[in-house]
Amino acid sequence: MDSASNLLGEGTEFSVGEETRRYNLLAGKLIADLIKTSFGPRGFEKMYIDLLGEVTLSKNGSTILRKIDVDHPAAKVMIDASNSVDNEVGDGTISVVVLTGSLLEKAEKMLDSGISPSTIEAGYKEAAEMALNIVRSIAKSPSYKDKEVMAKLAETCLSSKAISILCESKSVSELVTEAFCTIADFANRKVETDDIKIEEKPGNTADIELVRGVVIDKTIDNSAMPRMIENAKILLINHELDNERTKTDAEITINSPEEMQAYISRESKDVKEKTQKIIDSGANVVISQKGISLLAQHYLSRANIISLRRVKENDLHWLKKAVGSEITNDLDNITEQHLGFAGKVYEKFIGDDKMVFVEKCKNPKSVTILLRANSKRLLDEYHRTVLDAIAVLKDFFINPSIVAGGGSTETIIAGELRKRSLSIEGKEQTVIQNFAEALEEIPLTIARNSGMNVIDTLVQLRSKNAQYNNGTIHSWYGVDAIERKVKEMYSQDIIEPLVVKEQVIKTASEVASLLLRVDEVVMKQPVMYTHTHANGTKHSHKKGNTPHDHFDNLGKMQRPSHHYY
Description:
The protein has 18 helices and 20 strands. By secondary structure, it is of the alpha+beta class. Helix 3 crosses helix 4, helix 4 runs antiparallel to helix 18 and helix 14 runs antiparallel to helix 15. The longest helix is centred in the middle third of the chain and has 25 residues. It starts with a helix and ends in a 24-residue tail after the last strand.
């Protein structure tokens, strides 16, 4: 140790062998304990307050784990695992942390009993492969066009989220499913989930709605324009309906009042000519990414045309897909294909603000989910929840295989693993049996968060699984958190995509094996410590990690005292 210290220099810390491994396992288990109470329909919310005092309220595992700032590398690996599952399949973020934490706990016990880390790693790898084969063999494969199955998948996903507590999860799941099916290309089996716009406004949760078109957080430009137009012909433009502005500085010299009047008349004539081209095109709604002058608004209002100016670029692309038109850059060549159709365009009060609805489109390839809640924190959580449900539907659309939820799938896999482990000799048999027990932590965590007796639940799950699982026909017994009973899950329509289960098992086994493989940590102490002052400025210097003040040569304090977060 001393020779290594001399080799690498002062300020280097070592952690070697069993000590390192224990700390890694402990860090992983602590992250799992932190988030596992949020798991399941009866899970609890987590509240995070950041440096600026902004509050995040969420049951979403990856949301909270992204917020917290940890220093231990093993804890960061756990957080990265949750994020990778979220990015890949959009759900299962808490499941992977719970399973990984349980695998690490079992590994620690096996290390105590004298089983080597390499044996545990090999056993976990074999058990994960067996688990994947089992879950694929028991999965059911309905048609990817089955909208009833999609609605059940969305409802299962939403049932464990905050949105299910404050409104009917079934109605929201049907709304999300309808939105997804509207924008999906079933013929070519392609879907772009970004075509679902999610708009948020404070209000009553019961007023959450799906608009078959686009909702724009803008008001109609001029009070003289109509407030509603039916059978709207919509023109989307990326062109300034105003006086031309040069990109560089320009100067015009005017020597007489007549020249000034001629200049103003010419500008007005240019705007009128542009506006007339729009009127001649037959459009009765104009939506522009750029400005529309008051003079242009006047001419448009006289022709009973609605205009919206400075609409966001994303909104313009959503509108393009919803109304079936092209975005016009050249007003001289407006054709029929540049005009889109909407059954109704109107302005409406949503809460305290006015918004413009473009809806009842013929074949919209972009829709809007308008979320309502009584606070910004709830709106943010609803937004995350709806994105999770959309991700689950996409998983099924790409790979239409499903399994039952409520921990029933993990119970079946655990039972099968225990049976198959009997044919394996040596210590790996024990490792595989521990992997099976770790899988059972999923239904047991749901039961624990629901206030059920964990021992009784485990006994019931194992007995039901042994009674009804004969290798070919499976009854899916899991934990019904709402009724606090062990029930058949598949018949209750509690279902999840197969790819989510696969991703959770793969990631959890990989992370557990990764942390077991680390046997030495060499950490160089940073010379310069970055720290933050009360006024928000940051800087670095030696011993910046210890409480101190900054003084000038006269002994006067130059800066306020530090705040350590």
